[in-house]
Specification:
alpha/beta; 104 residues
Length: 104
């Protein structure tokens, strides 16, 4: 299951010893609801290799602002605490998975 990321736990996760994928989303966002099950599936498949998390932009607007998130869904891919890749908009499992593999 994807981890719920908030302003309180973000720094700890991004500076952890595993790469991090963050899905910025909101409940009212149709494309976010389409991508959600894919994110959950990949969280299970890559458990132990990559931390996969979700940030609700309505509840954590400070994180969305910090990373300049203007459209959702937006996925950011972090390695060693730095953004190394980004995808804006809905995406297929194969696109997201190729970005996850790039973190390994």
């Amino acid at each position: 299951m994807a981890q719920q990321i908030t302003s309180a736990n973000f720094k700890e996760l991004v500076n952890g010893n595993k790469p991090l994928m963050v899905d910025f989303w909101a409940e009212w966002c149709g494309p976010c609801r389409m991508v959600g099950p894919i994110v959950e599936e990949l969280a299970q498949e890559y458990a132990g290799q990559v931390v996969v998390g979700k940030v609700n932009v309505d509840e954590n607007d400070d994180l969305a602002g910090e990373f300049g998130i203007r459209s959702i869904p937006t996925m950011l891919f972090f390695k060693n605490g730095e953004v190394v890749d980004k995808h804006v908009g809905a995406a297929s499992k194969s696109i997201i998975e190729s970005k996850l593999k790039g973190l390994l």
